Automatic annotation (TrEMBL):
InterPro entries: LysR-type_TF_proteobact-type, LysR_HTH_N, LysR_subst-bd, WH-like_DNA-bd_sf, WH_DNA-bd_sf. Keywords: DNA-binding, Transcription, Transcription regulation. The lineage of its organism: Bacteria, Pseudomonadati, Pseudomonadota, Gammaproteobacteria, Pseudomonadales. This is Transcriptional regulator, LysR family. It comes from Stutzerimonas stutzeri (strain A1501). GO terms for biological process: DNA-templated transcription.
Length: 306
């Protein structure tokens, strides 16, 4: 199928040069192909654009009117294409990034000022939610995902490991005792994370591949880790959360990490994901590189060796 825009370019060049062969040479195509493009335009429009002779082309009245329109339209198309292409080279425009609430508030938002100083032509919209969003349907340029990545067409780069810890406040442990095994958790008030089937209100999973499921129960279920930490610090019960959420409370002594007889499940890490594109826009590339560099050293939620 012949491209209408290419046909318009052939027509304008032929009108300027007075020859289809000259237009073909300029546009790097055969004279026969140039003729096909003009013929297709004339069939689509239902008018003749050129008077043709063996020596030279001349515009019909309709061709003259169409030439004026093409000379107005084609530069606008070129400008639009150049603007879009520049976004792949220069970091510009609105970057919409979706991030889990606690991780985004504590560890992504503090990085944005320096990113903005480095890339002043990029405006960042930070969407904070613990619910997993659909990037394509939601119009997001990229997202940070915590946990095991599901099979999807999304591209991904790893930012950091994300170990899980079972924790409780000293006041709770003084009152209810210290669980020594995963089986002991069945006798404790386990505060569940409602967005996870593996650390929710009914079962907690242990082992690198979450192969061991332990029945638990508790009087609080929440869809945000910070809410669970606050409840645990208050002595309400035991929580099963990523290290980055509990690190501050562990350092202060408000929470204690429990040593059980089975390892915590492997959560899969922290990744930045973005729509499939062989060459994503520069605004996405520079943010990904910036985040990878920011988390390349010692992580802000690292804990001293036990």
């Amino acid at each position: 199928m012949l491209d209408r825009i290419t046909g318009m370019r052939v027509f304008v060049r032929a009108a300027s040069a007075g020859s289809l062969s000259a237009a073909a040479r300029h546009l790097d195509m055969s004279p026969a192909m140039a003729s096909k493009h003009v013929d297709a335009l004339e069939r689509r429009l239902g008018v003749k654009l050129f008077h043709r002779s063996t020596r030279r082309l001349s515009l019909t009245e309709a061709g003259g009117n169409y030439l004026e329109a093409c000379q107005r339209i084609l530069p606008e198309i070129d400008e639009a294409e150049a603007g879009v292409a520049s976004q792949r080279v220069e970091a510009t425009g609105l970057l919409r990034m979706n991030v889990p609430l606690t991780f985004g508030t504590q560890f992504i938002a503090p990085l944005i000022p320096e990113f903005s100083r480095r890339h002043p032509a990029v405006k960042v919209e930070l969407g904070l939610t613990d619910s997993q969003v659909d990037l394509l349907d939601g119009g997001w340029d990229m997202a940070v995902r915590i946990g095991r990545l599901e099979d999807s067409p999304l591209q991904a780069r790893r930012l950091a490991d994300c170990p899980l810890l079972v924790c409780a406040a000293p006041s709770y442990l003084d009152q209810r005792g210290v669980p020594r095994s995963v089986a002991d958790l069945g006798q404790h008030n386990c505060l569940g994370y409602s967005l996870s089937a593996l650390a929710g209100g009914k079962h907690w999973a242990f082992g690198e591949h979450a192969e061991l499921r332990v029945a638990v129960s508790g009087d609080l279920l929440a869809n945000n880790g910070e809410a669970l930490v606050a409840a645990a610090v208050g002595g309400q019960g035991v929580i099963y959360q990523p290290q980055f959420i509990v690190a501050s409370a562990l350092r202060s002594g408000e929470l204690v990490a429990l040593e059980l007889d089975q390892p915590c499940m492997g959560l899969g890490g922290i990744h930045v994901v973005y729509p499939p594109d062989r060459r994503p826009p520069a605004k996405v590339r520079v943010m990904i590189d910036y985040l990878v560099d920011a988390f390349a050293g010692e992580l802000p939620w690292s804990l001293p060796p036990a």
